[in-house]
# Entry
Amino acid sequence: MRNWLSSQGARVGATFIGEESQGKPGYDNVYCLVQLNDGRWMVAYFERGSYDDARYFTDEAAACLDFVQMVAPRRDVTEASRAWERFGGAQS
# Structure
């Protein structure tokens, strides 16, 4: 996903993609896509030691699309969805 985000002009260095079991990001001011221990997905902005504007999803693809829209907001929903599907979606 990082390669795809970079190709879309997103600031990949300002992202954290991981699992809840890894703990919180080790740095502030990052956009996060986190798989929670209960199987859900969280998309949020992390700063000052806490998650802001957290959104939760049961569907990985929906979480990934929301994350893409957060880090590359210049792309509209339809365009981002088509590009993500061409890339292979959340299965890659």
In short: DSSP finds three helices and four strands in the chain. Residues 2-91 form one domain. The beta strands are 15-19, 30-35, 41-47, 50-57. The first helix runs from residue 2 to 7.
